[in-house]
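Dear Dr. H.,

I hope your travels went smoothly. While you were away I took the liberty of generating a structure for the chain from your last submission, since the lab meeting agenda had it listed for discussion. I wanted you to have the full record in hand beforehand rather than looking at slides cold. The sequence, exactly as received, is reproduced here:
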Amino acid sequence: MFLGEYEYRVDDKGRLPLPPKFRQEFRDGIILTRGAETCIVVYPIAEWQKLADTLAARTVTPSKLRRLNRVIFGAAFSLTLDGQGRIALPSPLRRYAEIGDVATIVGANNCIELWDSALWNSEKASAEEQAWQIIESLEGQP
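The corresponding predicted structure, in token form, is as follows:
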């Protein structure tokens, strides 16, 4: 489980260190893709496989599944950590997430999210305003 919020500098080569306590989870590889919001979602290989299996098992029309697969898998990149625990952010994803010189890494349960720090602060404020309403709507659900 990934928890917490961390801010790191992106170096001149577009590399971003991952928090040391997360690195072991990514020893087998990393998949990065676009998030639903303006961020990059980072999955360990095992979690990425679960996502792929879940999508393959969904009962949606073939055309909708093709479109979804294009969005999720077409924007994905497979990476490994370098010797210093960094990942090289692919330019298309970095542009999509509007990440500049500083990024915020957010634990999101089974994955992590990479955010431009200003966009993260805005998203966090919005999420905090709605959190209790969301929690209350979940009451009584399994």
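Two observations you may find useful: Strands lie at 5-9, 15-17, 30-34, 40-44, 77-79, 86-88, 102-107, 112-116. The mean pLDDT is 92.

With kind regards,
E. W.
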